[in-house]
């Protein structure tokens, strides 16, 4: 006759509840921050630049050329800044690896595993430039086909508002953060930036400077 312990051992294991796979969303923080920051920066800065020009100039060609110059300059600035920042981080991590290498017994295996996780400055620079350009294209495309000056400004504001909500929502979904707060922060910040640029440029332009 089988004992109680034998019965318990022979019970099928399919009744055990599998553990849920755990994912650390903080791992996404670095590249998510760079992508959302780059796209939002391109969107808000170029839109604000175009709104500032639109405050004193009615010519669509001037607005488009100004926005395009802002796109190129901003993308280059983002790429260089991200490259320098990530390269500095790479230097720090490499120096730390060399210090750890002298202290660990299994230094060869640890060195190989850590090299796979080192940041890539060239990839970071390219990603930042592309993200900035993607955001900057929104106001450029919104204004490109509108002839009437006032309608053009309204369309740019509407397009930027929609894009800010999209960027905020995407960032919240990927990072598992509250979508309402994320969208509200981007939207209010973008509106303030465009309003300040438009108002100050209009003030300076009307003063005859």
UniProtKB/TrEMBL annotation:
Keyword Iron: yes
TM region(s), chain numbering: 31-53, 60-80, 124-146, 153-174, 186-205
InterPro entries: Ccc1_fam
Annotated coiled-coil segments of the chain: 87-114
GO terms for biological process, alphabetical: intracellular manganese ion homeostasis
Catalyzed reactions per annotation: Fe(2+)(in) = Fe(2+)(out)
Keywords, comma-separated and alphabetical: Coiled coil, Ion transport, Iron, Iron transport, Membrane, Transmembrane, Transmembrane helix, Transport, Vacuole
Localisation: Vacuole membrane
GO (cellular component) term, any one: vacuolar membrane
Record GO terms (molecular function): iron ion sequestering activity; iron ion transmembrane transporter activity; manganese ion transmembrane transporter activity
Membrane topology value: Multi-pass membrane protein
Chain's role: Vacuolar Fe(2+) uptake transporter.
Family: Belongs to the CCC1 family.
Protein name: Vacuolar iron transporter
Organism: Daucus carota subsp. sativus
